[in-house]
Sequence to fold (173 residues):
Amino acid sequence: MRARRILSRGLIVALSALLAGCSSAGTGYLGGLLTAPGRPQSPVEFSWTADSSRRGTITATLPTGERFTGNFVQVTREVPDTELVPMVGPIAGFTDSVAREGGTTSQNVWAPAVDLGSFREEYANRIVATLFGDKGNAMRCGFRLFDPQKGFPGGGTGDCLISYGNGTIAVQF
Fold:
């Protein structure tokens, strides 16, 4: 009887560990610093929820009160084109270049005619996000991951551009 209880407990612990290892969903926060024309720099907090190891939702509220909500995806060869197109397609208010890789080099990577194959190669294992605000703006983000296997929890840097020239957010996590 005692051996059976020990075996049962051992199986429960092993099964719990296995399920925890397979679970890729999670939640977390990212810290950012907004630089906007004519305003002092301000902190911005992002929250994210992963519904799988490579995709999920992300939100941010600017100091102006505008709340942004959208989706993110970690770019891999396995991500279907149907999930990448909304991340790279044209959006009103984006005529400027987008900072990439968490650095200061700008390139118009989200132009109307993006080649998804090239985008996949350039952004392999990076996270891209498109968010829409409740006051008419949109936001595009690119995040460079320190540890792509861990996604956001592995740390990284990124930049978000707000449409119509309403600012940029430098992000560290």
